[in-house]
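One example copied in:
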Amino acid sequence: AVPLRCPPLRRLNGRLSPHRSWAAIEFGSARLRDLAHRAGASLNELLLAALSTVLREYLTARGELPHRSLTAGVPASNRGPTADPWHDANGMILVNLFTDLADPAERLRGIIRSSRLAKEHVASMSPQAADLHAVLTFGPALLQEATRLSGRVRAPFNVTVSKAPPK
């Protein structure tokens, strides 16, 4: 996935207003981890595939499914095994959601490939380069909101997806 190449979609990337909302849901992590393991995916990849399916159905029902796939901005750690423990090491990767593919199994395989390529790319960088990558990836979204350009210019990605660890 590449920043600023996602399809323009007013429903997801319009201007923020008091009428916008967010959603959260809690699942039993043991069952999801088992499902992810059986699919050869990480838990995050499985959740991205579920979101991709929901977004595809939602947009299709409204006649708004774009021909190009949606893109997710996903917070990710860029801390490698030799990382400095004092370095924050949080970044953002872009994952292609393959909403243009009808087959859910094919979508999951694509998401796994996209997610792992993005993580490998960030892991191959120095900590300084990874920090710059995070700024260049997520910065446009923050800048658009700060300058009130959200919804008026192309978004860097369609949705932000973050998984909170269980307590």
Q: What stands out?
A: The two ends are 31 Å apart (CA to CA). The first strand starts at residue 71 and ends at 77. The helical segments are 10-13, 29-39, 43-61, 104-123, 127-146.
